[in-house]
Amino acid sequence: MLRRLFTLLSTLIPVLLFSQDSLKNQESRLVKLIDAKSAEMKQIDGREYRKVTGPAQFLHNNALIICDTAVWDVLSNTIDAIGNVKIIQNQTTLLSDRIKYVADRSVAEVRGKLVELVDKENNKLRTHYLDYFTKDSTAVFYNGGSMVNKDGNTIESLNGYYYGKQEKFLFQMNVQMEADSVLLSADSLAYMANQERVIFLSKTYAWQNDGFLYAKGGWYDRKNELFHFTKEAYIKTKENEIWADTINYNKNAAEAELFNNIQILDTAQSAILFADYATFKQKPFKAVLTNRPSVASYTVENGVADTLFFAADTIKYYTLLKSEVDSSIIAQSEDRFIQSKKDPIGEILKKQPLPKKTTKTPTKKPLAITPQKKDTLSVKNTPVAVKDTLMTRLTDTLKQTVDTTTVKFLYANKSVKFYRSNLQGICDSLLFNSIDSLIRMFKDPVIWTENNQFTSDSVQVVISDRKLKKAELTSSAFVVMQEDSTHFNQIKSADIVAFFNSDELSRFDAYGGVSILFFFSEDSVLTTMNEKECKAMSAILLDKKIERIRYFEGIQSNAYPLYKLEQAKQKLKGFRWLEGKRPKSRLEVSDRSIKASQTSFADSVEKPTFVQTSIYFGRQPNGLPVTASKPVVLK
Questions:
Q1: Distance between CA atoms of 311 and 328, rounded to whole angstroms?
Q2: CB of 60 within 8 A of CB of 32?
Q3: Average pLDDT for residues 50-56, to the nearest whole number?
Q4: What is the mean pLDDT of residues 482-499?
Q5: Local confidence band at 355 (pLDDT 50, 70, 90 cut-offs)
Q6: Which of 354, 281, 356, 359 is closest to 316 using CA atoms?
Q7: Between the CA of residue 110 and those of 63, 131, 603, what are the distances in Å?
Q8: What is the pLDDT of residue 345?
Q9: 3-class DSSP state for residue 379?
Q10: What's the pLDDT tens digit per position in 362-410?
């Protein structure tokens, strides 16, 4: 008995399951006519059709089909809806003058003079060719289409998709977009309507005012006006080019956050900024660099390029309108500018030049020491007539400053180091502004040029026409010039001023009690050390060697043969040779590779023309000229 029951059940269950599936399939095929004026049977070419006049309403897959008239082929389960056709499903509406609905495939093939899909957010997608699938509320359009939202923002492409349940649009091939003054073109992008978010799925170009952007991925959050660009992101503005692996841009605040492999090219200042993290603002310009930041300042002279690289733990680089700069900062900067132009010893040397040499300087004594009667000149009591020259140069420079609309500032903090082919240095912090054009170095600053080392409590470097003109060593100044591996010429004083010609050390002056050690050679062998003390001194260099020295007031001099001179007496108190801390190459300061300018590429990329939008909406966004002959009107 049990065996018979089991056999019966095993036979009936598949039949029952098949019947249920069959009923479901029949139900899914079933199209319901729920309203019409009339419906009559017609025979065309031997087949029976139902001609429905209305307004008529059909229901399938919870999608309502409304039209003026319809031809219903019951055998093929298709409906040709004609005149003022609508398909309404959930909160999506599809409009056209003609639709063919194939119920077995749950697809509405929408064709006509104009096809419009409107979602719950009132985004309007228009095209000529669209297939809408009622089973999963999706659509595909092709041969061109354009979507405009309630605020007039536009996205168009050749092909695309609509996913009603996710409230998502996908645009592909020749995608062009206009959103809140930003123009954009891409290979493909997705628009999340309920979130007002655009997702960039491939290489993307964007324009705003005079700015250009390129990236290979990212998104745009319209609610919060946030852009996120990834994969080789690049921005070009009127004066800057910016590269980074990732860029976050806040449109409302006009601020960007940059991540990894950052390069900012400031063409106005001939500077390149590097870091792995930075914040950036265009107007007024401001960049704060951290995570391995560095800067390259480049010059080109007589066709030869030379670049100064420097790095620190943090670098801030920004501009302000002069009216926005604190008045005390302006006053201090202008005073520093005036003081940096003064050269009292230089004026003395002009008034009382050294006598011309009549014979060559003997090999035994390569340094020409000024006669003692010249050494008695007093810096303090000698008048210096520099007023006219100084004021003329000052007036010209200040005129240039007044004409400049912005003031540039640079601040580098902690572990500062820099390198150029003929200049290297380190310090704890560094400041610069364009009012005085001075680089100020603080806390254990060291500068090296050739075989020369300069140290003091602080250093002030004068830059003019992008060239090093003067370095002022303030308090505990010390100059060391290497003769060989164990002997060093040394000058120690309160303050030292070094002058440069074509970036080469040409003269240096010492003030405020000077102690000096110099080594002399015979037949290229060092034999004698000369020790001097005075109130002030000035040394002139030629071919990177001291040519002449002039001493002022209270001169004391002693000479010692080297062969019996103790090593301790060959160093002034406070002597330090810091060659081990000297950057040996620019790679020790910045190992970044420099990206070539992409200006030509950026200028060559064609901006969006919005051909599809002009066809389907009779206009183009952002004030672009209309290319369609007549606007299309949807009834």
A1: 28
A2: yes
A3: 90
A4: 91
A5: low
A6: 281
A7: 15, 6, 40
A8: 82
A9: coil
A10: 333 444 434 333 333 333 333 333 334 433 443 344 344 444 568 889 9
Which neighbouring-strand residues pair with 171? 160, 189
The yes-or-no verdict on residue 604 having pLDDT over 80 is yes
Strands in 467-578 per DSSP E? 467-482, 488-501, 504-522, 525-542, 545-552, 556-561
The pair of three-digit structure tokens given for residue 532, joined into one six-digit string: 């001097």
> CB-based contacts of 72: which residues, under 8 Å, 6+ apart?
31, 33, 39, 49, 50, 51, 52, 58, 78, 79, 80
Ranges of H-type helices in 57-204 = none
Q: Going by C-beta distance under 8 Å and a sequence separation of 6 or more, which residues neighbour residue 150?
A: 121, 122, 123
Backbone φ and ψ of 243, nearest 5°: -120, 145
In angstroms, the CA 167 to CA 219 distance is: 16
CB-CB contact of 386 with 347 (8 Å):
yes
Q: Which domains does the chain have, with CATH numbers?
A: 335-588 (2.60.450.10)
The stretch 338-350 carries a mean pLDDT of 82
pLDDT at 563: 85
Those residues whose C-beta lies under 8 Å from the C-beta of residue 83, and which sit 6 or more positions away, are 67, 68, 69, 97, 98
Return the minimum-mean-pLDDT range out of 137-151, 175-189, 612-626: 612-626
* Residues 338, 343: Cα–Cα separation, whole Å: 11
Map tokens 């031997």 to a residue. 46
Separation CA 79–CA 72 (nearest Å)? 5
Helical H runs in 324-476? 327-340, 344-351, 372-375, 387-403
Give the chain's mean pLDDT: 83
- Amino acid letter, 194: N
